[in-house]
Here is the input.
Amino acid sequence: MKNHLFHVTGTHCPSCKILIEDILQEQDLVDKVTVNLKDETIAVVTKNEQDTNELMQSLGALIKPNGYSLSLEKLAVENKNNDIIWQALPIGMALLFLFFLLQRSGILNFGIGGQTTPTTSFLIGLIASVSSCLAIVGGLILSLSAKISQDDISDKKTIVLFHFGRLAGFVILGGLLGLLGEIIGINFTVSAILGLLASVVMLWLGLNLVGVFAKSKITLPSGIFKFFRRIEHKTLAPLLVGLGTFFLPCGFTQSMQIAALSSGSFVTGSLIMFSFALGTFPVLALLSFGSASLAHSKYAPLFFKTAGIVVIGLGSFALLGGLAGLGIIRPLFNI
Amino acid sequence: MVAILIGGVILLTGNSRSGDINSAGSNVVIKDGIQYITIDARGGYSPQRSIAQAGIPSKLIVNTNGTYDCSAALVVRQANYQEILPATGKTEIDIGIPKAGEPLRGTCGMGMYNFEVNFD
Here is the structure.
């Protein structure tokens, strides 16, 4: 038995504790691992007499792919983090500014007349994907992808599952709308509440990405995080989130749902919704896969902080809008 | 940083389409004792502010023309109205007899577009 104490960097999230403990606990020579997020230390008890330096090398290699590194001395990372946030802030604000400028420009407001066919719904999907709906659907996707990339390694798989869930969900739910009509009619208030929920998630993830919680990590009971981590890695969660985007408030999605509903047929309804989702795919795919690849590049720290700022901006916008839509507050803006 | 964000939002709202205020009420017509207030919905609502008379039975006419965006998801709380408007068409909404000084507000489902009708 021997006790070792290492300093760790990269523990940005409460679930990091569980991840590191899980990985290191699997090692034969390790008896007990305790991660202390507040002090950013890892206490390791080994079964045999182990050289601390050697142990640090071998354990460090195990958790390096997840973005953690071990050291014997506490590293001064504070300054570096502060520098990055000052780079990320103007970039994030500029991106938000461009987004709102695009909304106000009126470029997206050309009308599409006539029957709703799969072709027109594809076009409407293309427009929707850069419209104000991007604030909620895109913002959610960006925050989730960035967070997944930050937390673990199998982000590509999770993102693929998400998009599959979204496309398949639109096919099935669109078909059901056509077939059953009003029975699963989309309730305005339910959709608005889901929108509020999504914006709260975005704000929370955004603050997390920026690193507001880094110093005083808000640590929920680790049982809850174990639960979340378990579903994060399962196939079902990203599929369900993808499918759930069907119900998020977005004027374009809702208009398409009405078209699917009035079509009165499973095939037409499902074609309309599928073409629409396909139209939104390029931008959403760019956001999710783009964030995954940036997250693995050398710009990762800057990317996470910039994404965080963009997500906070979009999240606040969606939250204030959602509250106004529900009549809880007076509308604050008219973009 | 939050302060900057809020500042940005105020900046965006501050210079709203202020030229869009309809004072003369060219979108308000009284016919057979009923007041019709017409609002165009596409990429927002226009006119954003209108002035109409109080004390007469009134109806809101919302015109859509290839409207698929948020403005198609119309909410008018006071009239207890929440519907997705047809992409192209005219929708009539009964707003009862408006009282002076109680503006009627409409917003789209996500709350990003709105309009206001003042009665005097």
Summary: Chain A touches chain B through 59 residues (CB under 8 Å). Confidence is low (pLDDT under 50) at residues 215-219 of chain A. Chain A has twelve helices and four strands.
